[in-house]
Specification:
Length: 217
């Protein structure tokens, strides 16, 4: 076999493995990673890097620090992976690591974080996307409303803000949030409802929210 033929065969095999890894479940990738397959863990990073960064960004509200938290979360996960027993979903385990890092950062800062939502994930994105074409006036109104939401989110206690982020932005169930926050299910519901009530009052007070948008926050 010539050098070029051998290289082509190796590349072809790598491509097949990469293509297969994209269809593997988190559990399969974790199992392969625990056996020393670094490429499988890299696939987990590719799969979860954006959600983990978004979570950190929404909780602490600072881009550079959120990126550092994201990197540290994956580093800690990689180091702790041999002891991961699969008692929870990999994603839940990774979210817990991330939230713990966020809490550590907030404690070090000793001040309320300034919550800044990424533009492509604001709370009325879905509502705005329903229209065929967004006018300049609508775009300006949406940006202004997003800024109001950011300020309102920054005023919430950490537990309420985190519950809203996990439920409304990451689509977690009440039970999953309870497991992550280490509290009873009823506590999560209380935090969420109280936090959303504060947001609604704040938005209504600013006169930025139409009736149909209130229901979507």
């Amino acid at each position: 076999m010539s050098g070029q033929t051998w290289l082509a065969a190796v590349l072809s095999k790598r491509i097949r493995i990469l293509a297969a890894s994209m269809t593997w479940t988190d559990e399969e990738l974790v199992a392969r990673s625990q056996r020393g397959d670094v490429d499988s863990f890299n696939q987990l990073i590719l799969r979860w890097e954006r959600p983990i960064y978004a979570l950190a960004y929404r909780v602490i509200g600072r881009e550079d620090e959120a990126r550092d938290v994201c990197q540290e979360a994956f580093l800690r996960a990689f180091r702790a992976l041999p002891g991961f027993k699969g008692q929870a979903k990999f994603s839940s385990w990774l979210y817990r690591i991330t939230l713990n890092l966020c809490r550590d950062w907030i404690r070090r800062q000793r001040r309320a974080p300034v919550s800044q939502m990424p533009e492509d994930t604001d709370v009325i994105e879905k509502a705005a996307a329903r229209g065929p074409v967004e006018s300049i006036e609508d775009l300006v109104a949406r940006r202004e409303l997003s800024a109001v939401v950011e300020r309102a989110m920054a005023l919430l206690p950490e537990e309420q803000r985190t519950a809203i982020v996990l439920k409304e932005y990451h689509g977690m169930t009440f039970q999953e949030i309870a497991d992550l926050q280490g509290c009873p299910l009823s506590t999560v519901k209380t935090r969420l409802y109280q936090g959303l009530a504060v947001l609604r009052r704040q938005l209504e007070r600013n006169g930025q929210l139409q009736a149909e948008m209130v229901k979507r926050v």
